[in-house]
Fold these 4 entries.
Entry 1:
Amino acid sequence: MKVELFCLCDAATEAGGKLNVLGAFDRVWAREAPVTVAHCAVAARIRFSRIEEGTHQIRITFADDDGSLVLPPMESRIDLRFANQDLSVPINLIILMPQLKLPRFGDYTIDLALDANHLSSLPLMVRHVPEPPQPQA
């Protein structure tokens, strides 16, 4: 299998087998923690070869830089069946995360695994925006 796309984005949809991604990002700026990201999604497109036909377990984890999970692991099973002579088939995966709460400033990672094998990681950096200086009276 091959990961063709794996990103954190503002929004993602699927229509007619097409994966539509809007606003991929890896950084969030905020004035105070905890930080809430109003709307975001994780989008992935994974291509499988005919030899990989069968059932597979997908797992996505979201952890802070200490390895503590920020969200419960997101797991799904896929059952790949090839109906014709195609040599490969893509799977689009979208996980919507409304009101994502990040407990503190720092670095986070989103990891993608298939059948307990790590495939890819995404960084998410949550940074502090300092208050603007107050004008002198």
Entry 2:
Amino acid sequence: MHLTLRFIGNIKKQQIPSLTGAIEQAIKGFKGFQVSTDRIGGFPELKSPKLIYLGLGGSCQLTALSDRINAVIDTKPGETKNPAQTGKYHPHLTLCRMGRQGGLTALVGSLSARNGITFAVDEIALFKSELGGKSPVYTVLRRFTLG
């Protein structure tokens, strides 16, 4: 399960220090906050999803945090420009990618019947993701504490 604020794409190892410095500047003074889940969804649609997610309601702070990070990543001079963030940011918790559709109805029903879950957001992390094999491998490159 993960929450993406910004997908950066491929970067060179030597870009990591300047990237982490830019993220530190972007989140400076940003305090931790609470977020709640509000719905279950699927991409591209819940009827035949490739991905199942929990939507996050009242997520103005997540959007503001994403906007701050996008501003520094899209405008860093002298480096390869990272992919621009396109479209509106829709905060969500990715729960799983779907293979076969078996058990989907039970999963959706179980999650839909639950009340929203509230949790604290008090840090963000820069991850390296390696695709291949059965599922991606995520490695934390750096953690950043909010506020």
Entry 3:
Amino acid sequence: MKDFLSAPRLAELVRICTEMYAHGWDERNGGNVSVLLDGADIDGYIDTKNVLRELPTGFSAPLPEGSLFLVTGTGKYFRNVRYDPADSLGVVRLTDGGKTAQLLWGFTGGGTFTSEFPAHMMSHAARLSVDAENRVVLHCHPDGLLAMTYVHDLDERAFTRTLWQMETECVMVFPEGVNVLPWMLCGTNEIGEATAEKMKTARLVVWAQHGIYGAGRSLDETFGLIETAEKAAGIFLKIAHLPWKQTLKTEDLRRIAAHYGVTPRAGYLD
């Protein structure tokens, strides 16, 4: 049996956690990531018969029995992940209808999965219902997007159109737009359910005065998705107080979408 510390999937998550901290998106123990694993991701690395601990999830996860996840731990600082991955991360298997997570690897200091675990599992289920290849859910606190929720209308169409207008790539990268939730208490099943509902129509869900949830097929794709939206939010904040002499018009956005073969969210370019 090889050491899971040398597994490619673990190396990817360690790299992304390090990048997220470097970007300033995950201060202290803020933010969390979960990756749906295939059996091949752990085959030869983890003995699936050896359950280290059983962790109650506090909810019923709407996912197949035995689903495997690599997930960040509660209270763990992203800046420390690369130094001791086995303490900050864990591999869990859902059982008992998702009410129990069996720890198969990690959380060596006696920790457990992120407090946002219900929101992650519900979001995974929602994304899988529309795209069977979506395997990553990533939550973080990017400065620009968070600040934008204080000064911009939270209407999803208006929020999306502003981001699309900030740089040409946005309508290409997230043509389905950005969904937005008003402030809600984090770490609850309620915000998890609300986020999952929003995840059915977009891969990005902004939590007002808190941060953002992103979903995708890979860690790189999901990181890049948030990175693009955050870049656009930063540009908006730099120019919001200035008179605009030009911007991307609706017709420009249509031309971009047509040229690159993407379909913008219905009604957002009317």
Entry 4:
Amino acid sequence: MDPSRRNLLKLLAGAPLLLTAGFAGEALMRFAKPSMKAGGIFDPADEPELAIPPLFSKEYFPEPWTCLPFMYTVKYKIFSPEKEEIRSIPAFIVRLNDDRIQAYSRECPRGRGCTLNFVKESIRNCGCGTSVKKCCCNIELNNPAFVCCCHKDVYDLANDGACVRGPSPRRPKKIEVFIDGEQITVGRMENLLV
């Protein structure tokens, strides 16, 4: 038998295996990167992006510890006929006592669908619907904080959102804030994929 004919038969016999491996690899890549189009292995990563950047004015924050709620709207690329999904995340933007302005997600760092409340007065009554004596987060704090009444966690805003009560693994997710004259624009949220 001619060696070139033997190589041709080997190639024809191995072609189904190569095609199967190629299709399996493509399916695996689509699992790892769901919005990837066919052959888009080397395209940039599909990261969420801010759909509508919230705008604020400095006049909305007349005094320290002014806190405004807003919805942080994010666009996710997905592999479906719609090609994208819009999600809204509740958030707060706060003027601190040193005139810095910071924004945080209201989603509790411990998850499970709980949202944080902003408490400007004494933390002895966090607004969780109980009396001062039975408040879920009975703690002395000299400045406003975020409180999660589901998990009884308190996050100190004067200390970069650090958890001062409760076993929370981290502070709330911060959101970039850009100030240009009198206009305040909200940017990217940290660890958005998590």
